[in-house]
């Protein structure tokens, strides 16, 4: 997604505290930013943070696995997400496991791509031509996510984090 003055519409799926949605809005005041989450508690925190920061973001309670409900939000120039992606049998560091709700972290062991698969239909239903969809992923599943997003008319790329670990996948719709 390109930073700029041109008004854009951006969706943050699994917004949690709203950190990504709020950062995008702070950097791009003309953008219409929408953050969605299934957790009312998370959305309340996001709203509190938005008020403290004086930023106008739209918060919507919905289940991101319900692709039709997401599609009903309309079309977006960009979709960002840091969804739950940790297989439930994976043992985490106590400083993560003890402070994050399980809902924010885990997916069933047999369904590591649960949220990325649910995002596939959004490429045609929600993303404008030239639009960008980017999601953080488990380092062990970036290739699988990239493969499931390899749709006709889309460029897909694995991105690395600052430590050089494969950490995210980006799709650009042509
Ligand atoms: C890893 S946290 C990411 C939070 C924030 N975006 C961030 O990057 O820090 C995942 C978020 O997805 C939300 N979530 C879990 N299941 C969901 C679902 N079915 N639909 C929408 N949001 C969901 C959780 O409540 C949590 O806020």
What is the topological layout?
Layout: E1 9-13, H1 19-27, E2 32-37, H2 40-53, E3 58-61, H3 67-71, E4 76-81, E5 86-87, H4 94-97, H5 102-105, E6 106-107, H6 114-125, E7 127-136, H7 142-149, E8 154-160, E9 166-173
Parallel strand pairs: 1-2, 1-4, 2-3, 4-7, 5-6
Antiparallel strand pairs: 7-9, 8-9
The structure holds S-adenosylmethionine.
Describe this entry's structure for a reader.
By secondary structure, this protein is of the alpha/beta class. The chain has one domain: 3-Layer(aba) Sandwich (Rossmann fold), CATH 3.40.50. The chain has helices at 19-27, 40-53, 67-71, 94-97, 102-105, 114-125, 142-149, and strands at residues 9-13, 32-37, 58-61, 76-81, 86-87, 106-107, 127-136, 154-160, 166-173. The strands form two sheets. It has a seven-stranded mixed sheet with strand order 3-2-1-4-7-9-8, sandwiched between helices. The mean pLDDT is 95. The protein binds S-adenosylmethionine (SAM). S-adenosylmethionine binds at residues 14-16, 19-20, 37-39, 42, 63-65, 82-84, 103-104.
